[in-house]
Design goal:
It contains one helix and 19 strands. By secondary structure, it is mostly beta strands. β11 and β12 form a beta hairpin.
């Protein structure tokens, strides 16, 4: 039965890689699910009402008095989970119908699919696989740098698989292969800064435990990226020394530093620069907190070429009023993308994305949330300063069911 279910969902993932749509995350997911052994299926349904002050993602001072609307959203979803002695499998599908009060021509269905599989073969060897297919209503919903915000649909496919091998009580190695593809609804046109492309990456992570709290090691990744319209692919190498440290039972730190190198192409000279990453995390009960920073080179699926990407983010989730029924969830991500390619089309992009949620769970099967989100982006192009604010509420219900 497990093989049959896996086959059906893999076929579903390949189908959803063709033109579909996916709902953007505003607010948290549905009510929390506590999985037990065996199969669990969790159907969900939700409704949201949102006010959007820039539905077209126009620049500042462009049709500002005719560019807002109220949107009713209906989103069914289903989650399938299997927990066995050595195997864990999860797949979830969510769709949403966006109904605009005034601009009804924008009404659409959005869809999204995730698949996860992890298998513990022996005490030393385990492997995992992940797949995600989505089609987003606008480019601001893509979690990548180097892409200008446009009210243009985008399809993404993200897949990865890897193997973890524990050599001893102190040494382990994780090898991962990733593939990512981005395509836009309109034909590729460098004038609008939406090209698309794909990137294949291999990542190797080695860790050596010094003691129960400290581990050091090294990371190496190789990316080969193809951007539509560029004459040849880009090869990006990153090598870092790494450290993971448990500051306390609730606080942890991970970081790395090294060098990133981009090989020369017909439009990009060879580049070498520092690569950095660091993150602090806190987990205590139902409260989580994280803050991080990342610097590296990445391909630009917007204007083409490569960019230097600096990214900083912070987020936290915590109960409110000393109650398990009330909570807040907040996140902020800032990206600064500087062009590395000598083409006139490339522009620097500075992007900010933030959301805040206050939620109430009167029962385990329902959540009521009020939310606010904001995105903004600035470039040197005329009309390149964009702001978008959305706020509203949503109600999500779900009911886990055991499958015998």
């Amino acid at each position: 039965m497990l093989i049959r279910v896996l086959s059906l969902f893999v076929v579903g993932l390949l189908v959803l890689a063709t033109p579909l749509h996916a709902q953007e995350k505003i607010g948290t997911s549905g009510p929390g699910v506590s999985y037990r052994g065996g199969w669990t299926i969790t159907p969900s349904f939700g409704f949201a009402e949102t006010y959007d002050d820039n539905i077209s993602l126009f620049g500042v001072n462009t049709a500002e008095n005719q560019n807002d609307d109220y949107i009713a959203t209906y989103f069914p979803a289903v989650d399938l989970h299997y927990a066995g002695k050595h195997t864990r499998f999860g797949a979830d599908y969510s769709g949403s119908f966006l109904s605009y009060q005034t601009f009804t021509l924008l009404n659409r269905w959005d869809q999204h699919l995730n698949i996860n599989l992890k298998r513990q073969e022996t005490a030393r060897l385990s492997w995992f696989a992940h797949g995600n297919a989505a089609a987003l209503p606008s480019t601001e919903a893509i979690e990548l740098g180097g892409i200008p915000y446009r009210h243009t649909g985008a399809k993404t496919l993200d897949s990865r698989g890897g193997v973890e091998y524990v050599f001893s009580a102190r040494d382990s190695l994780v090898t991962t292969l990733n593939y990512q593809r981005v395509a836009f609804d309109r034909p590729a046109d460098v004038r609008v800064g939406l090209r698309g492309g794909d990137v294949a990456e291999s990542l190797n992570v080695w860790r050596h435990k010094i003691n129960s709290r400290l581990a050091t090691g090294a990371d190496y990744s190789f990316r080969r990226a193809r951007v539509v319209g560029d004459p040849e692919p880009f090869n990006i190498h990153t090598a870092e020394g790494a450290i993971d440290y448990e500051l306390s039972p609730s606080w942890s730190f991970s970081g790395g530093g090294g060098v990133v190198y981009t090989a020369p192409t017909l439009i990009t000279p060879a580049r070498t620069g520092p690569a950095w990453r660091l993150a602090f995390e806190r987990h205590q009960g139902a409260t989580t907190f994280h803050v991080g920073y990342l610097r590296s080179f990445i391909p630009s699926f917007g204007y083409g070429g490569t960019v230097q990407n600096e990214e900083a983010g912070i987020g936290f989730h915590t109960p409110l009023f000393n109650s398990r029924h009330w909570y807040t969830d907040n996140s902020l991500v800032y990206r600064d993308n500087e062009p590395l390619t000598n083409t006139v089309q490339q522009l620097p992009l500075r992007s900010l994305r933030t959301y805040s949620v206050i939620g109430w769970t009167p029962q385990g099967w329902v959540r009521v949330e009020g939310f606010y989100s904001r995105v903004q982006q600035t470039s040197l192009r005329v009309g390149g300063q964009i702001y978008r604010n959305r706020f509203g509420f949503q109600i999500v219900t779900s009911k886990p069911m055991r499958v015998q």
